[in-house]
Design brief:
The chain is mainly α. The chain folds into two domains: 98 residues, Arc Repressor Mutant, subunit A, CATH 1.10.10.10; 93 residues. It contains eight helices and two strands, in the order H-H-H-E-E-H-H-H-H-H. A two-stranded antiparallel ribbon has the order 1-2. A hairpin with a 7-residue loop joins strand 1 and strand 2. It starts with 10 loop residues before the first helix and ends in a 5-residue tail after the last helix.
């Protein structure tokens, strides 16, 4: 396989390959395991169509193969897939790449922060205060989920993604609260004159 034809990685594609390492599954089974194992925190399976497209792509790339097609009285025909040797190797390559090198991504929140000047200071403090409330609830829910995992005696390695998401969410909460505090106490302020001056004399190379 040439470099130009290398299969395209994605979090969902990696997760599908990883789950098929454990056992052959049909698409509905894959979706159920993702939810049962709490992996919907890191891969989006709300739209089943995206999962089916991913499975079709993996199959077309030769990373998974049809194990069998079955039917019973309760369910329509279901195709069971298994990972191929190429799929096992590709999953390892993708995993190492995703772990070793941060990927340049463009999430919504930083984009919104870059356009804050559309709002007044008090409006910014209000909307960020609301975000802080949502983040605080998420941190509480994550703490409860992690405590439940520990109570089940699961090894820590099975929940590292949850630890990471909790740490990132808590860090964001701390930062957002500090910005709200600075806005409300006047430590974070600006004037129209400052902004006009900057716009009239942009930095030049």
């Amino acid at each position: 396989m040439t470099a130009s034809a290398a299969p395209r990685s994605s979090p969902l594609a990696l997760t599908v390959l990883a789950l098929l390492h454990y056992q052959p599954l049909h698409p509905y089974g894959i979706q159920r395991v993702i939810k049962d194992w709490g992996k919907e925190q890191v891969v989006n399976v709300r739209q089943r169509a995206s999962l089916y497209r991913t499975i079709e792509r993996l199959h077309g790339d030769g990373l998974i193969a049809v194990r069998e097609t079955g039917r019973d009285q309760q369910y329509p025909e279901r195709t069971v897939y298994e990972v191929t040797d190429a799929g096992r190797e590709t999953a390892r390559v993708w995993l190492e790449e995703m772990l070793a090198a941060p990927k340049e991504e463009f999430p919504e929140f930083p984009a919104a922060l870059s356009n804050l000047l559309l709002l007044l200071p008090e409006e910014i403090a209000d909307v960020l205060g609301r975000r802080a409330g949502v983040l605080a609830e998420k941190v509480d829910a994550m703490d409860a989920a992690l405590a439940a995992e520990r109570a089940q005696g699961l090894p820590r390695i099975t929940g590292l993604e949850a630890e990471y998401l909790r740490a990132v969410t808590a860090a964001e909460l701390k930062w957002v609260r500090s910005v709200v505090e600075d806005l409300r106490t006047g430590q974070l302020t600006w004037s129209k004159e400052q902004l006009d001056a900057f716009a009239a004399n942009p930095a030049r190379e």
